[in-house]
Amino acid sequence: MSVLPGTDVISFARGVPSPDMFPLEELAEFARRAIQQDGRVALNYGPPSGYAPLREWIARRHDVGPERVLVTPGSLIGLNFVVRLLVANGDRALVEAPTYDRMLHVLGDRGADVVAVPRTDAGLDLDRLAALAGGRPRPRFLYVLPTFHNPTGRTLSRAAREELVELVVEHELLVFEDDPYGLVRIEGEPEPLLHELLRERGADELCVFASSFSKTVAPGLRVGYLVLPEELAGGVELLATRTYVSPPILPQAQLYAFLDAGRLTPHLAHLGSFLGERRNALLEVLEDRLAGIAAWTRPEGGYFLWLELPDPLDAVELEARARGAGVAFVPGPAFFADGSGHGTARLSFSYPSPDEIRVGATRLADLVCDSVESGG
After folding, report:
1. pLDDT tens digits along 138-178
2. Which residues contact 16 (CB under 8 A, 6 or more apart)?
3. Same structural domain, 143 and 209
4. Would strands 207-212 and 175-178 be described as parallel, antiparallel, or unpaired?
């Protein structure tokens, strides 16, 4: 198929929220409230651990002491801190296959020996994980996104979480649980965090937990956080101290005012409806145009859907042609430590409108069908 010159590219590539998802009026209200009520603190330099009331709010939410919470300027810098503290050149780190591409970049920059554990709808390959956890060299940690996984949108079941936690405890393997999307639910019931399951076993020292308010409130606030084992908290905070003079305290105070007023829960309900309409638009086109040709996940929340292309299509080659057809996505190899996954692609449904999604998905489906008919 061809698209006329000047046609806008509809992008399923970046996992960014639509501006229509932001609670604009409320955030304006709470920015003013933060300055009026605590401006002498919010407008000044602050501790590297973050704005104390927000830190305490997060600590209560996760049932830990505030000394174990570090509020960071976005979650990615928190991921960097943990990797810098734990991983030296040549150290082994375990990741899922596929996994978050930015973590692969961070580990690569540290010279880590990155080893992947396959993950499917059924969960992680626990036999492979057990062999790696009990082998040599001993892994520094396992990085996992249990809920609304980036890039696949998959969620580990309660049973899969229980089995994973049993293995982690048996091998005393530190698990790095990344959960930026867990609260962005479209349907279904939430599963317990790995952090919670480990705490029930008296083993929450085996978990680093990371999350962010970028996907739930607004990325421009740049507020992420870590919940750390006691033995790691001081070292990570020291890295923060050496990295910046102060985190941005005003947006943290603004966010705290929003949270303290009880606005998060109704906002999350709005996000579920907003994203559900977009996910459903994407699923409808795929089911109508690619049933029996390709396969895909049906995420219960988050921003992403994982597309498995028919043989012998290569997602990298397809993406290059797709841009000419007016649609963009991320080819699967970006999310694999070994660069595999050429038959897969990540589609984000968080930014385009439902109508744009239908148009873009139709363009992509037409391209896939044309490629299959022509033999690739």
Report:
1. 999 999 999 999 999 999 999 999 999 999 999 999 999 99
2. 219, 348, 350, 351
3. yes
4. parallel
